[in-house]
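Exercise: predict the structure of this protein bound to pyridoxal-5'-phosphate.
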Amino acid sequence: MNKNEILAKQEEYLWPNHLLYYTDPLPLDHGDGLYVWDVDGTKYLDFFAGILTNSVGHNHPLVVEKMREQISKLVHSSTLYPNENHVNLAEKIASIAPGALQTSFFTNSGTEANETAVMLAKAYTGEQEIIALRHGYSGRSALAMGLMGQSEWRIGPSQIPGISHAINPYCYRCPLKMTYPECGVACAEDIEDVIKTTTSGRIAGFMVEPIQGVGGFITPPKEYFKIASEIVEHYGGLFICDEVQTGFGRTGQHWFGIEHWGVEPDIMTMAKGIAGGMPMGNTITTLEIASELVGKGMSISTFGGNPVSCAAALGTIEVMETEANPNHVADVGSRLQSGLEQLWDKYPLIGDVRGKGLMQGIELVKDRNTKEPAPDAVSEIFEQTRSYGLLIGKGGLYGNVLRISPPLTANNDHVDEALVILDHAFAKVQEDF
Ligand SMILES: Cc1ncc(COP(=O)(O)O)c(C=O)c1O
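Solution:
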C-alpha cells in the first residue's frame, strides 16, 4: 500500500483520537538496526526507538532468530501452563533487578504492570491510598489516568478516589520557586505534607518514575528518592518504582534507573524496552510481598508470559549484555549529553538539557529568563529533523521538551549523525524565535 492509501484507511477505520507525529503523518515500512524506512523508501535515523521500546534496534538478528524458533514450536499457552521461556525470563530479570526483587508477574503493557503493582500494594498493606507525582505518566487505563499528573493525557473525568499527587522534583521549573541545592530538596517533603493533609495518614504505596518520561525526562536531584522512600516507609506504604521507560539499561551504568539514587523499591514495573518491541509488561517484587496474594483470589493473564514475547525478551537482554550493556549506554549517553550541551551554548531556544544515559531531554523556551515554554519550536524542530532524516520524540506538560532516546545499540557515529542534524534543525528554527 502506498502512503495515501494507508492514511485514508487510518482516517476511516482507526479512532480519530490516535495521536500521530508530524503534520504529514509518517507510515513506516521496515527497519534495520538504528534505521527505519517509510513506505516511500526514505531512510531515517531512529532516535526515539518506538517510544524507548526498540531497545536493541530494529529487527536484531538474534532477537528475530529466538522468536522464529519459538513461533515454530508454540505461539501461545497462557499463564495456566508453565513454560520454559517464561521461567527463564523471570530468573534472568531477578538476576539483574536490584535487592530482593525476585518474583515476576508478566502482562502485556506498562499500564497493566502498573495496575498489577497497585493491586498488590493494596493487598499487602491492607490500605487503599496511593501517592503519585504531578507530571507523572502511568498509562491509559482508568486507574493509570488517575495516577498520572498531566491533564492533557486524562480523558474524561478520570479522578480516582484514593490517589493524591505530590509536587515533582522539577528543578528547572521548581514548583516551590527554590534553587537546588540550597532548597535542601524541599519538594520531597511535600510527600509527607500530602499524606498528612489529603489521606487517612495510612497509605498503600507511592508510585513514581525515576525519571519522568512523558513528563519530559524530568530528572530528580540525587537526594530525592532516599528522602521520599523514608517518608513512604514511615507511613506504611510500599515504594512502587515505574521503570517502564527507565528500565533495562536505558539510563546507563545500571540496569534500572532507580539504582542511580541508591534506593531499593518494594515493587518495580517494567515494559517498553524489555522485549525489544514485542508487547510485554512485568511487575517484580519480593517473595514476601507477592505471597500475600495467595488465597486472596484467582489471577491469570491470557497473553502474559507469552512464549514468543519471552523469547524476544531473553534475546533482547542477551544483546544488551553483549553489545549494549549499561556501561556502553553510559559512554554513548555522555557523548550525546555533551553534544546537546554544546547546542545549548549555541541556541538560546534551548533552556535545559537533562537526563541520564540514552534518555536525554531538551526543554525549549522562548526566553531563558522567563522560561516561557516554546511548544511551537518543538513542532518546527520536528519537521526539520524529519526532513533531514532523524526521528525524535517530544513530551512535557507544556509540550516543549524534545525526547532523545535511541536504541541502546547506538554508537558514537550514530550520536554524531544525530547531533549534526539537530544542529542544522536548530540553526533554521532559532531564526524564527
Ligand atoms: C512511565 C510509564 N509508565 C507506564 C506507561 C504505560 O505503558 P503502556 O503504554 O505500555 O501501557 C508508560 C507509557 O508511555 C510510561 O512511560
